[in-house]
Task: structure prediction
Amino acid sequence: MRFIDNRKVFSSHLIKLLLSISCMNSPLSPHLQIYKPQLNSIMSILHRLSGVGFFAIMIIHTFFLLVLVNGAKDYEFFCILLDSTVSKIFTVMISMCVCYHFINGIRYLVWSTGKGLGIKSIYLSGYLIIASVIIIGIISWLSL
Amino acid sequence: MTNYSKFYKWQRLSALVLAFIFPCIFIKMITVKKLGYYGFIKDFQNIETYLLYLAFINIGFYHCYLGINSIFLDYIATTKNRNLAMCFVGLIILICVLISCYSLTKLLVGEVN
Result:
């Protein structure tokens, strides 16, 4: 006759139950409600948000190609749409988003090689990226 | 190697390629914009521009797909919902890639309305 340890069965059931509960109420990553906001954590979150902005610009690019195929009239209409103040603000924001994602992405690629990981250089590169994105935003606003 | 580390590797690789392609596209767009509609049409009939844009669209959307996948991995707890969301995003990306490739080919051949 096989002996079954009730305590083992109970503990395995308890573990399964706890796992299922933890899966249902999985906390937000990177645990926004726990950590105090820091430059790096905010830049990491912004990198993801700007990635969504990059996705938006890819979709707009698809529309732009379709507009080009449709002819000169549609292109003119597209240019008129871009001339309004709201779309100018949108364009500047999107270009800042993409530039931020691009520059910060290069920083991540450099980090992948193991360089620039000291606290001082991390903060310095972070501030440099923020400053360059603001400058790009001003330039793109003036060029529109 | 797990699936997730594979995703990470491909995301970094596509980012590396995009880091070279994106500035080229950006400069090209600004330069050609001054020439107007016919400047764009003439530029797109060039095979080098066609290949550059084709690479940008395919690698860019692939990079987007991997990035959104990693966001969903962090914020959507259940596998079923995550897969559903990924299917939806994948479908949108597939449609966009097909439309872009179709438009680019038409621009290359010169079949514009």
Summary: The mean pLDDT of chain A is 80. Chain A touches chain B through 31 residues (CB under 8 Å).
